[in-house]
Amino acid sequence: MTNTPGHSAASGPLPYGTADEPRLAVRGEASLEFDPEIARIAVTVSARGTNRKEALKSLTRRNSEVLELIKGYGEAVEKLATGTFSVSPELTEKGRRERVRTYNGRVQITATVGDFTALGEMTTRLADLELTRVDGPWWALREDSPAHREARQQAVREAVTRAREYAAALDADLVALVELADPGAESAPPSSPPPLAARAAGYRGAPSGEAAGALDLEPQRQQVQAQVNARFLMSRPTL
User: Fold this and answer.
1) pLDDT of the residue at 233
2) Does the pLDDT of residue 170 top 60, yes or no?
3) φ/ψ bin of 6: left (φ > 0), alpha (ψ from -120 to 50), beta (otherwise)
4) How far is it, in rounded angstroms, from Cα 179 to Cα 212?
5) Which of 31, 141, 181, 195 could form a disulfide with 145 if both were Cys (CB 3.0 to 4.6 A apart)?
6) How many CB atoms lie within 10 A of CB 232?
7) pLDDT value for 203
8) Would the pLDDT of 33 be above 60?
9) What is the pLDDT of residue 210?
10) CATH 3.30.110.170 region(s) of the chain?
């Protein structure tokens, strides 16, 4: 049996190149921008009362108002969830005995909005509610967004282009693809997704007064980055 250059009959492809078939390793990178697909907001509802029951009653009422308002936007809201909830006593600062001055209640609600035309009005109406704080929006792409695939494919194309340029500089050609992998895919644990590019602001509801006009929110474009390692075999270079 005849062995081809750069290969071993017993072990298959060598882990390194040869003079006849040098191995070429490159990294392809891509950085693309896309319009956001969703926006997340966090709504914190607060209540106070001289006793626990009064605080709970006020908190329940305001929580229901917030949920009803958000649900009123129908399909524009893709996800709605209740997060942390707490009711805690606030003690007096003076005196030897522990006395409860008031009870503070708080509940946090998160909403994911896919229709940005309704987002400005929604955040304004929420912020106009009594003892209600609105944080966000945090702009993002969906986890299954085609943008991620497009960035990865662009990184692969960049790797091939770079490898061809290196080979051409030596009057050689690419012969075969040996390996294509994410950086650290073989040795490192899966990396966490990058933090969302976000712009956040807090709005507190006013206890009274005329309703404010809808906020004009400008969606922030999202940057998607991808990297890939590629190894090729190239023809014998001319030196």
Assistant:
1) 95
2) yes
3) left
4) 58
5) 141
6) 25
7) 47
8) yes
9) 57
10) 14-35+144-186+194-203+218-239
Q: Please give the distance of CA 144 from its chain centroid, rounded to a whole number.
A: 11
Instruction: Tell me the β-bridge partners of 225.
Output: 31
Please give the C-alpha separations between residue 90 and each of 93, 99, 102, 130, in angstroms, as whole numbers. 9, 8, 5, 20
Instruction: Tell me how far the alpha carbon of residue 156 is from its chain's centroid.
Output: 22
Cα separation, 147 vs 82, whole angstroms? 29
Question: Boundaries of CATH 3.30.70.2970 in the chain?
Answer: 38-140
How far apart are alpha carbons 77 and 238 in whole angstroms?
A: 62
The label of the residue with tokens 């409860």 reads 100
Of the pLDDT bands very low, low, confident and very high (cuts 50, 70, 90), residue 74 is: very high
For the chain, what is the mean pLDDT? 85
Closest by CA to 159, choosing from 237, 74, 227, is 227
Enumerate residues 6+ apart whose C-beta is below 8 A from 96.
none
* Amino acid, single-letter form, for residue 184: G
CATH 3.20.20.120 fits 14-35+144-186+194-203+218-239, yes or no: no
- Fold held by 38-140: Alpha-Beta Plaits (3.30.70)
Q: What is the pLDDT of residue 238?
A: 84
